[in-house]
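Hi W., the adenosine-5'-diphosphate complex you wanted:
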Amino acid sequence: MKKALNILIASPEVVPFAKTGGLADVTGALPRALRRLGHNVSVILPRYQMVNEVGRDIRPISTKKRIHVPISARIEEAEIYESKIDKDIPVYFIDKKEYYSRPQLYGTEKGDYPDNAERFIYFSRAILETCKALDMRPDIIHCNDWQTGILPVYLKTLYKDDPFFQRVTTVYTIHNIGYQGIFWHYDMHLTNLGWDIFTIEGIEFYGNINLMKGGILFSDIITTVSKTYSKEIQTEEYGYKLDGVLRKRNKDLYGVINGIDYEIWHPLRDKFIKERYSEYNLSGKDRCKRDLMDIYKLTSKNDSPIVGIISRLADQKGFDLISEIIDEMMRLDMSLVLLGTGTERYNRLFEDVGKRFSGKAGIKIGFDDPLAHKIEAGADIFLMPSRYEPCGLNQLYSLKYGTIPIVRSTGGLNDTIEEFNIQTGKGNGFKFREYSSKELLLTLKKAINIYKNKKDVWKSLMKNAMKEDFSWENSANEYVKLYRKALSNRKLYDEG
Ligand code: ADP
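Structure:
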């Protein structure tokens, strides 16, 4: 029997406590999957305002333990709160009201929270101080995204000779390389690191500080959330200027696809949808479609498909393509249902679409988790024409709900969606390669045509999709292998 590992997952957002995107789903589900494999897992995140909106049974309570964290020339105190996932996974929260008790996690527009460098440099160091305060000695600290990027740097510099951390190894996961935590060099004092770290081999990046670069260079193993994305980010087109750094660490870089929490996202178990259903009995899906039409006041006929979109409204997600052809799209025999929020330009554009095509386009600008479930269940087609997509979760939810994804073949979309072949009956969705609105429109027309004119074929496509299994178990096993590899690389573990 291999030894059970002690794993601490450090993340700026975790379901069910705080979420802005897919990262939260991942760091909420991965601990449970690791636990099921017999490992000891804890999780740590900041205590945001949003954290107190969870149900009373899981609302964090104070451990009464305090930490004292150096930041610049000051020592700032914080309190550690605690809750649990699934009764046996401890979740710790850094309670520091000045930093985290705000309406949003990071702010939506650039400059909303000008102290983000301070907030997350503090968070990263506070995690290490929490380990000490709680006498928690993980084998692995699994860091996620730019907000925890400086933690591996600390372990190899300021904490290098600290006996407490001699056996700690780090794995760093990039969920989206488009967000790197870049701050001006005047913030360097916040890190308490010397200027020797502000170099091209360190966290310097075109004259600025880059926290993600720290995570990439100083962690023991780096992962990202799909195999295709792990290759893409090493190219100039997708690397956001970190491609060279990643190529340098190429032999320690792995792609592990995200899993799905089928306790939450499954049409047989979903607590938000009108009627539950399965691949063997699809009548519930019709009911969910009618419900969705009522919610969005759609007047189209039942035999035309509803195309769903749930997304951050950002360029990354392909909204520039959609906006080029939106009028043409709305003239097709389909309805559009969109739930999303993001840049003002797209918020306004889609509000306008909702007004101009009322009855045919249902638009909700905002974040609404129950509605996201209703769309997955009630729509027929799910649209994700992303410019780049590290993994993507919505296409995976869509598969399980029999809502056929149309995607651009990039990153995780490429790895999880197989083009449907009408001759062989194989495949689970539709994809196009070139990032162009013309390709998108052609693919959409192809899907609508099959939906309307080849009902049996569409049903078999739905069945293919619903049979797919992207549960966490496989991915969690891959992470465990990488954790062990990280330990054995540092001679802290014998792979045997
Ligand atoms: P990303 O993390 O890049 O935003 P993913 O597809 O990986 O994209 O994950 C997005 C997650 O956030 C999904 O769980 C999706 O359902 C959810 N989501 C995105 N926008 C909204 C919204 N407006 N309302 C509710 N859920 C949303």
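Residues 64 and 276 are 44 Å apart (CA to CA).

W.
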